[in-house]
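Data availability (excerpt). The following record was deposited with the supplementary files.
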Amino acid sequence: MIPHFFSPERKIFYEPGIAGLRIITGLFLAYHGWEIFDAQKMQDYAKWLTDLHFPSPPLMATLGKLAELVSGIFITIGLFTRLAVWPMILTMLAIVFTMGHGKIFYEDQHPFMFVLVGLFLFFNGPGKYSADHALFSNR
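Predicted structure:
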């Protein structure tokens, strides 16, 4: 017998939990994407991508950081969330399987966790504490 406090009918932690997960994920992603404004870091990323034999390394580094920044902002506020997670998912999969050589827990970074959170948000939506809910829900 499940105690009443944890019964499925009482999802008191569900919506705040989704909001917290979404906002923290979006802020982390935007934080990493903000590196697009640091010329030295962008040069370092381009050199790393050159060493990994990526095509157009400066462009690929810029696109990756731009995807992180824009996706992070949209995910944080919960706007167009189900679309915004896809650039994040694809970028993180590229990091895992090309830069990280298929290691889902790569050194001190965990890009695969962003993939899992992105899939969660895609299938569950951003929750009721989001811009999507405020703009598009049927009240």
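Summary of structural features: The chain has a mean pLDDT of 88.
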